[in-house]
Amino acid sequence: MNRIAKMPKIELHVHVEGATTAEVFYSLSEQNNIKLPVKNIEEWKKYFEFKNFAHFINVYITAVSALKKVEDYAFIIENFYKHQASQNIVYTEAFLSASFMVQQFNQSEILDAIAYGMQKGSEKYGNQINFIPDIARNIPDSQNDVLDFVIEGKKRSLFIGLGLGGMEQGFPPELFEEVYAEAKRNNLHIVAHAGEASGPDSIWGAINKLNVERIGHGVRCLEDDTLINYLSKHQIPIEVSPTSNYCLGIVKKNENHPIRKMVDAGLFCTLNSDDPAMFSTNLENEYNLLAKQGFSFEELKQLNINAINASFLSKEEKNNYLSLL
Ligand SMILES: [Zn+2]
């Protein structure tokens, strides 16, 4: 086993639904009598493979439509613990696509199912995961229901924060200002995807209007020197996901990933897999990719340490994980 595989890892930006495999979605669609736009599992696996952004959104929506019962969420959450543990990821902060849940399910039933999946997963695999439900920004009408769901889940110690995902263009951070302020008043941690499909304005909005504690993706900060200086000075953590950026065309395939420029500019970067099943990657692969692009093992280890320090763990818990490295 190489040093990257052996290193106990921390991941802060990964979506449970995006880490769920084509096979699992296929078997749930059969159980739930959901018609997928394919004839058999082989075709579904091909359909599931990443092709382009529009297709990716279709895959995501089609795959998530196979989740019809609250028990399906318990099942994919338990599986997610296994997926993380198999890569020696000892601690994870993971997103759940809450806009889909609040539209479909009774709140207490879905919270019970999530609690059950968490209990089963942590008992079986022993890794620690904290969950951050997120609002799909392209379904802005769901935001108040998502906030309510997250506050209830926090009371039951299921959730630690609120996120903002989905389509960035056309749905700027400003639309979610009040819900984010309310989340903060409820002592939730707050994060948002920004600076991925949209440019620096989206990151400024996430900082100034939403007061986020971390930025998801953030790679397009490199288009604005003032923003780079701000992010560096305030050491705002950035959750970088290289393979996701390549797949979605945020970074050109034939270029090295700009995380090198971000690290060299003194930015507080962490490394993440985002939607690993849909982008055919995982966290270990992300570290290997940067190793191929010239990062030394010490630099990779520092990204992992950054993830511990950027996490929402207590000081004591952070020290426990730091002592493993
Ligand atoms: Zn993401």
Explain how this protein is built:
With 325 residues, the protein is an alpha/beta fold. It has a single domain (3-19, 74-322), classed as Metal-dependent hydrolases (TIM Barrel). The chain is built from 16 helices and eight strands. The protein has an eight-stranded parallel beta sheet. Strand 4, helix 9 (177-185) and strand 5 (189-194) form a beta-alpha-beta unit. It is globular, with a radius of gyration of 19 Å. The structure holds zinc ion. Zinc ion is lined by residues 13, 15, 165, 193, 216, 274.
- Helix-strand pattern: HEHHHHEHHEHEHEHEHEHHEHHH
Terminal CA distance reads 16 Å
- In the CATH hierarchy, the architecture is Alpha-Beta Barrel
Largest sheet: 8 strands, parallel
Give a summary of the structure in a few sentences.
This protein is an alpha/beta fold and 325 residues long. The chain has 16 helices and eight strands. The site of zinc ion has 6 residues, from strand 1.
Summarize the SSE layout with pairings:
Layout: H1 3-6, E1 9-15, H2 22-31, H3 41-48, H4 53-64, H5 70-85, E2 89-97, H6 98-104, H7 107-125, E3 128-136, H8 143-155, E4 161-165, H9 177-185, E5 189-194, H10 200-208, E6 214-217, H11 225-234, E7 238-240, H12 242-247, H13 259-264, E8 269-271, H14 283-292, H15 297-310, H16 315-322
Parallel strand pairs: 1-2, 2-3, 3-4, 4-5, 5-6, 6-7, 7-8
Bound molecules: zinc ion.
Descriptive key words:
alpha/beta; 8-stranded parallel beta sheet; 8 strands; binds zinc ion
